[in-house]
Design brief:
- The protein is an alpha/beta fold.
- It contains 26 helices and 22 strands.
- The strands form four sheets. It has an eight-stranded mixed sheet with strand order 15-22-21-16-20-17-19-18, sandwiched between helices. It has a six-stranded antiparallel sheet with strand order 3-2-10-5-6-7, with no helix packed on it. Strands 1, 11, 12, 13 and 14 form a five-stranded antiparallel sheet that branches.
- β11 (220-223) and β12 (230-237) form a beta hairpin.
């Protein structure tokens, strides 16, 4: 497109009014779309299985001062491993498979019940039927079993699939086969109403592993405040009461599991002390009996001062030896524990056996922290995690350090034990010099006191540990239990669905209008012509819904007649200097109303007492003679071949002042005939004899005939049809109007819908309700319009360049 043609095009802006009127004129699209969208939203809200959300909150206490004896420090060291709770670790525990499994074992969730309705099959938590399984027999999982209530006593049992069961049974009768073993009973037979609630049910035995994984994944855990330790547990499901029961049971199991974990250290300590007490109690009993028998037999109650001093020293050495032996057993226990265990949650603290070695305590605490960190990473990350590998390396190094420290402590303890043994031997040598009875009494008394002291010490430690265990409380507190009345509907979101349906119902038709408008290359508006060409617009003709083509004659008061009167008036301004007016009427393709406009324009001019001739120059597809019901044996074609004279082909019509020259028989070479001098002579003759000459020419997109004689005309009317003619035809008008030897082409818009958008926008609303769809049913195989339409622009532009 050259620069001069670009001036014809205006900047394209969004025409708000245009789309407003399109929306108003297609209001029924929006009404239907909104109705359908709201209906779909209603069906979704009505028949979608509802999903409810319930929640509970728990407080994870971040301290270890939960017992009276921690504050009083009666058992130093038993709280060695009671560190603050790691929130992420606790979240991981709550998400763990083991905790979900323990919870479900305490609930009756292994069977799911459903009611069979017309459309929905909702899950039921409380049904009026109870299915009792034989727990010793195998029950097939994930296979629906249908129960239809027939009466108070009978029901119909149906099992699909490979089982293929369809039988009538009595309530309470046992059903047995290779897949199931159960009976069905009525929950409340006295108040049973067969017509109440669902008549048909089905139940499914759930696979326990799948069920555990399902509930494990359903629980969502969030930290309410980043600075706090309150966790919110949320779960969603179709039956709110069922989810409430699960959440409450989950928190209950979690609290009790945490308390059991806390009590493990105390239980292990008690077990260790009991083992030591069991080994000492027999020795104490024997020593007590020996002391009593010796005093009775030898009449010796006390020993002298020297013997008593030796005895006291010997007793002290024996006590020290016993403690060293206990320490040595603890070191052996700890060494075995480090090598055999994969955690440090229940190790006995060194302070329980009065070991105060700071390095040992530090190494145990460090190892415990590393195991806690490893547990947290396992819960919160994938297996292939570099951080987890680093922690494992740290644990291995800490274990090696602890084992090395234990070995050193064992060596040191054995050296101390050897030293004590040497000192005991020395005291024994002095005791050997005492009188025999005193020496024997000292030995018996020594054994008794030694066993008695150790026994008393162990009993004290056991009592303290038992009291500490009894005073333990959980580090988790349930803040708010899950409640049915606090459950809220998650899906379907009724208000949102209706709002979305309303929005989509309005947007989709609007988008459809935009798409149709965007891809529509037809002329739909006067503005399309104004924006794409400078050719004058003579007028607009409405749609003809009459049975006749001669609308201005048969319906002179119609809106179409008024349109042609306006066009006639506009033509007078264009042809003000012309002695006689020769006007051609053409279009791009057949079916655009060219002949219709030519006939009615000639008729409306003749009605003003102007002598008018209508000439049919569409030699390839003549039509005018049919509308006037005249013979087509003579006409322009016979005149051009010199078969008839001009006067012989000009025929008078029934309309005053209107004459017609039909096309005549279809010639084999119409283009050559139109280029002869006889056509020029004909135009000159009729120009002198008539006030107006209206020439109906063939479509210029099909043939070039219209351009051959356009140089003889005073003006040309180019007919375009609304919603039929392509906007590309305006490029042809622009190219034709640039030619100097051809008279100006003017546009006439045909088949316009006057009411609604077009009339309101441009003021052409004559008040007549015309519809779309005007067209000519002609084609008769003479032209292949579909094929020609693909390349007519190129052919025509090429012809215009040749004519230049």
């Amino acid at each position: 497109m050259d620069s001069s043609q670009e001036n014809f095009y205006q900047e394209e802006n969004i025409d708000i009014k245009k789309y407003i009127f399109k929306i108003l004129s297609n209001w029924y699209w929006f009404a239907i779309s909104v109705f359908i969208a709201l209906s779909i939203a209603y069906l979704i809200n009505r028949y979608t299985n509802p999903v409810y959300s319930v929640s509970t909150t728990i407080l994870v206490k971040d301290n270890s001062n939960n017992s009276y004896y921690n504050n009083n420090d009666l058992i130093s060291g038993l709280d060695l491993f009671r560190q603050g709770k790691n929130i992420q670790n606790e979240i991981g525990i709550l998400h763990s498979y083991d905790l979900a499994q323990k919870t479900l074992k305490e609930l009756d969730f292994n069977v799911s019940y459903f009611g069979v309705g017309t459309i929905r099959e909702p899950e039921l938590y409380y049904t009026r039927l109870i299915v009792n399984f034989d727990t010793t027999k195998y029950q097939s999982s994930n296979l629906p079993v249908y129960i239809t209530i027939l009466s108070v006593n009978k029901y119909r049992l149906e099992i699909d699939g490979n089982v293929d069961v369809d039988t009538v049974m009595n309530f309470g009768d046992q059903f047995r086969n290779d897949y199931f073993d159960f009976n069905v009973t009525i929950r409340d037979k006295e108040h049973f109403d067969i017509n109440k609630d669902y008549q048909k049910y089905y139940f499914v035995v759930r696979n326990f592993v799948q069920l555990t994984n399902e509930y494990r994944s359903k629980v969502n855990i969030d930290l309410l405040d980043e600075e706090g330790t309150i966790l919110k547990l949320t779960i969603q499901g179709n039956v709110p009461q069922k989810e409430v029961d699960y959440l409450n049971k989950l928190t209950e199991v979690y609290v009790s599991s945490g308390l059991e974990e806390k009590n493990k250290t105390a239980e292990n300590t008690i077990a260790f002390i009991d083992k030591q007490i069991h080994s000492i109690v027999d020795s104490l009993s024997i020593a007590e009996n020996n002391l009593q028998n010796f005093r009775l037999n030898n009449k010796i109650i006390n020993i002298d001062k020297e013997s008593n001093a030796l005895f006291t020293k010997f007793e002290q050495l024996q006590t020290q030896k016993s403690l060293i032996n206990i320490h040595l057993k603890y070191y052996e226990y700890l060494s075995k524990y480090v090598n055999d265990k994969n955690n440090f949650n229940d190790v006995i603290a060194p302070s329980v056996v009065d070991i105060s070695d700071p390095l040992l305590r530090t190494l145990i605490l460090q190892l415990n922290k590393l195991y806690t960190e490893k547990s947290t990473l396992k819960y919160s990350t994938k297996k292939a995690n570099p951080a987890l590998d680093i922690v494992n390396i740290k644990i291995k190094n800490a274990q090696n350090s602890l084992i090395e420290n234990i070995k050193n402590l064992i060596k040191t303890t054995k050296i101390s034990l050897d030293d004590i043994n040497d000192r005991i031997v020395e005291v024994n040598s002095k005791i050997a010099k005492l009188p025999a009875n005193e020496r024997r009494l000292i030995n018996i008394q020594r054994k008794f006191n030694l066993n008695d002291n150790i026994y008393t010490y162990l009993l004290e430690k056991r009592a303290e540990t038992g009291i500490m265990k009894a005073s333990n409380i959980s580090d988790v507190q349930i803040v708010d239990k899950a409640r049915r009345e606090n459950a809220y509907l998650v899906s379907p979101k009724r208000s949102f669905n209706y709002t979305l349906a309303l929005i989509l119902g309005l947007i989709l038709p609007f988008l459809l209008i935009l798409l149709i408008d965007y891809f529509n290359d037809k002329i739909v508006d006067k503005k399309d012509v104004e924006d794409n060409t400078k050719a004058p617009i003579l007028g607009m003709v409405g749609h003809n819904n009459k049975a006749t083509e001669l609308v201005v004659i048969d319906n002179p008061k119609s809106g179409i007649s008024e349109s042609f009167r306006t066009i006639k008036t506009n033509l007078q301004y264009l042809l003000v200097d012309a002695k006689s007016k020769v006007i051609s009427v053409t279009s791009t393709l057949s079916g655009e109303g060219k002949t219709f406009c030519a006939i009615n324009l000639a008729s409306i001019i003749a009605m003003t007492n102007k002598k008018t001739l209508l000439v049919g120059l569409d030699l390839r597809k003549p039509k005018i003679h049919k509308d006037f019901n005249i013979n087509n044996n003579t006409g322009i074609s016979t005149y051009l071949i010199n078969k008839n004279t001009i006067d012989e082909i000009i025929l008078k019509t029934d309309i005053d002042n209107l004459y017609i020259t039909p096309s005549g028989p279809v010639p084999p070479n119409p283009a050559q005939l139109l280029e002869t001098d006889r056509l020029r002579n004909f135009i000159e003759k009729v120009r002198n004899d008539f006030d107006y000459v209206i020439i109906d020419t063939p479509p210029i997109a099909l043939v070039s005939d219209a351009l051959i004689f356009s140089e003889y005309t005073d003006t040309n009317i180019f007919v375009v049809r609304q919603n039929y003619s392509s906007k590309k035809v305006l490029d042809v008008i622009n190219d034709i109007n640039k030619k100097k030897n051809i008279s100006q082409f003017n546009v006439l818009i045909n088949d316009v819908k006057l009411e609604g958008y077009y009339g309101k926008r441009y003021g052409y609303g004559y008040g007549y309700g015309y519809g779309y769809g005007y067209g000519y049913g002609y084609g008769a195989g003479y032209y292949d319009d579909d094929e020609i339409e693909k390349n007519w622009i190129e052919k025509l532009l090429r012809f215009l360049r040749i004519r230049k």
